[in-house]
Design brief:
By secondary structure, the protein is α+β, with helices and mostly antiparallel strands. It has helices spanning 3-29, 71-82, 105-116, 132-141, 173-184; strands at 38-40, 46-48, 56-62, 87-93, 151-154, 161-164. Strands 4-3-5-6 form a 4-stranded mixed beta sheet, sandwiched between helices. It has a two-stranded antiparallel sheet with strand order 1-2. The longest helix is centred in the N-terminal third of the chain and has 27 residues, at 3-29. The termini are far apart. The relative contact order is 0.17.
């Protein structure tokens, strides 16, 4: 192989590697600040919330021994109906209100699967008062959870956050309408 050809191939390789690194850096930088964090899954493994960038998110603080626990069924129905359009429900079990989530992560995982066949992502039990994600959601929406099953709806950009009170059921027309509106927007 001639030295001119080798030099040309080296230049091409360098250009490809540079382009790839710029693309990767751009993709990593695209993660919204709200999602730019790691949290533990219900299986106690760290997971980056950047995985959900570009999705419409419904973030909910959950509890398995609450009068609102049947909302799990509606949350799963929303997830199944709209996930192919880009909705992801994220469940965050919490024992903050009434001690209604006393179990371990393993207990919570078993409950979610056995009682409600939950397929949406559920994360490790957390305290909302010290959870940076929930602090940021409260700041962005102007509302903090006052009970279990408070819902935050986050747009695809990760910048707009709407808050829905515990009493707003997953099939409430206001919530569903807002989800559908966000799914249609880019």
């Amino acid at each position: 192989m001639s030295s001119a050809r080798r030099s040309s191939l080296s230049s091409l390789r360098l250009l490809c590697l540079s382009s790839l690194s710029l693309f990767c850096a751009g993709a990593m930088a695209a993660c919204p600040a709200l999602l730019d964090r790691k949290v533990d899954t219900i299986d106690e493994k760290p997971q980056s919330l950047c995985e959900y960038q570009g999705k419409v998110l419904l973030v909910v603080n959950t509890a398995s021994q609450c009068g609102y626990t049947p909302q799990y069924e509606g949350l799963e129905a929303l997830f199944r109906k709209y996930r192919d359009q880009g909705l992801v429900v994220l469940g965050f079990p919490s024992n903050d209100f009434g001690g209604q989530e006393p179990g371990s992560n393993k207990d919570i995982a078993a409950f979610c699967v056995n009682q409600y066949a939950i397929d949406f992502p559920v994360f490790a039990k957390t305290s909302l008062k010290t959870n940076p994600l929930f602090q940021d959601l409260a700041r962005a929406s102007g509302h903090s959870p006052r009970w279990n099953f408070h819902k935050y709806l986050v747009d695809r950009s990760g910048k707009q956050v709407r808050s829905f009170d515990t009493r707003v059921r997953p099939d409430d027309p206001k919530l569903v309408g807002e989800i559908e509106r966000l799914l249609k927007s880019n």
